[in-house]
Design brief:
Largest sheet: none
Structural class: mainly alpha
Keywords: DNA-binding, Nucleus, Repeat, Transcription, Transcription regulation
Shape: elongated
Number of helices: 12
Number of strands: 0
Organism: Panicum miliaceum
Subcellular location: Nucleus
Strand content: under 5%
Order of helices and strands: HHHHHHHHHHHH
Helix content: 55-70%
Oligomer: single chain
Radius of gyration: 22 Å
GO biological process, one term: regulation of lignin biosynthetic process
Distance between the termini: 53 Å
GO cellular component, one term: nucleus
DNA sequence: AAGGAGATCAACCGCCGTATT
DNA sequence: AAATACGGCGGTTGATCTCCT
């Protein structure tokens, strides 16, 4: 019954930090043969490590398509938004951040973003104002809860989509299993992602013309329109030029549509008062300010990318 | 210059869902 | 159908770095 014993039960396997020599061995082996079965890889590559350790080292550090260094403003914004939608689902969040690993995102959240939100009196877990955060007022709290409710609603759809993506990604991986990985210089997209992020411009705010038209999702997504947008915008693995996925489309939509459009839509919904909209605006604006404030302390070519539009973070009002 | 505190991040641990036998 | 391995994920740890006194 079952398979043969796991390599991890073997004694004498090395743990702890990887040496440059080990990195070189692992890298050379994978570039030549692909990783194949992680369990058997260490022996073949001449490493005294368990397969799990090798896989971790590869996915979090050695993979050629990993971007290291400071997170950009756009990446920070995306992480905050996605965390509000998805919670601690780091791998799902990493799917939407080109060339960043889930481990790196998780670390960045825990060491930077979480603290900043907490400082603002926002619970980094729920993205709701903390009960002990003074000054907000009951009305503003209500607005924030509505915003959170919206996010929760959106998250349901996003979760379903991610599950579908995961299924398709598995199928794609199975198809690709026989072929070795691309060489280091190939500029791979994230292998954990079924989406393409070739368009770094999508996040950098440049080159919108082409990506925008395709990626922009309707401002208000009913389940039906979600399905349509979903179907139109994804080609799951085969199409490296896909426009970046549903959520990226929504983000883009938010970024470019601007406050006027968003507030006009909100005004059409009689159940949402102007005051509530202002409160929502204030809440998301505070997140935005928090994110932007990080720019002044970071060296950066990002200054021109500062987002000044609070509506970027506003949920589509008609969804309330 | 020394040492203590806090921040950072690579790596490990344990669990879970899926695949395999 | 059951048992087991495998791969992936999120939480946590601990070594190292940086800053402050």
């Amino acid at each position: 019954m079952g398979r043969s014993p796991c390599c991890e039960k073997e004694a004498g396997l090395k743990k702890g930090p990887w040496t440059p020599e080990e990195d070189q061995k692992l890298l050379a082996f994978i570039e030549q043969h692909g990783h194949g079965c992680w369990r058997s890889l260490p022996a073949k590559a001449g490493l005294r490590r368990c397969g799990k350790s090798c896989r971790l080292r590869w996915t979090n550090y050695l993979r050629p398509d990993i971007k290291r260094g400071k997170f950009t403003l756009q990446e920070e914004q995306t992480i905050i938004q996605l965390h509000a939608l998805l919670g601690n689902r780091w791998s799902a969040i990493a799917t939407h951040l080109p060339k960043r690993t889930d481990n790196e995102i998780k670390n960045y959240w825990n060491t930077h973003l979480k603290k900043r939100l907490a400082k603002m009196g926002i619970d980094p877990v729920t993205h709701k104002p903390r009960a002990d955060a003074g000054g907000a007022g009951a009305a503003a709290s209500g607005a924030r809860y509505r915003a959170a409710a919206h996010l929760s609603h959106t998250a349901q759809w996003e979760s379903a989509r991610l599950e579908a993506e995961a299924r398709l990604a598995r199928e794609a991986k199975l198809r690709a299993l026989a072929s070795p990985p691309a060489p280091a210089a190939s500029g791979l997209e994230s292998p954990t992602s079924t989406l393409s992020f070739s368009e770094s411009a999508l996040f950098a705010g440049a080159g919108h013309d082409d990506a925008l038209g395709a990626a922009r999702a309707p401002a208000v997504l009913t389940p039906r329109s979600y399905g349509e947008a979903f179907g139109e915008q994804h080609s799951f693995g085969d199409d490296a030029d896909a426009p970046g996925g549903f959520l990226a489309g929504v983000l883009l939509d938010c970024a470019v549509a601007g406050a006027e459009q968003r507030f006009a839509a909100a005004s059409a919904d009689a159940s949402v008062s102007e005051q509530q909209q202002e409160e929502d605006k204030g809440y998301w604006s505070s997140i935005l300010n928090m994110v932007n404030s990080s720019m002044s302390s970071s060296s950066s070519s990002l200054t021109s990318e500062a987002v000044t539009d609070p509506a970027m973070y506003l949920p589509a009002a008609a969804e309330f």
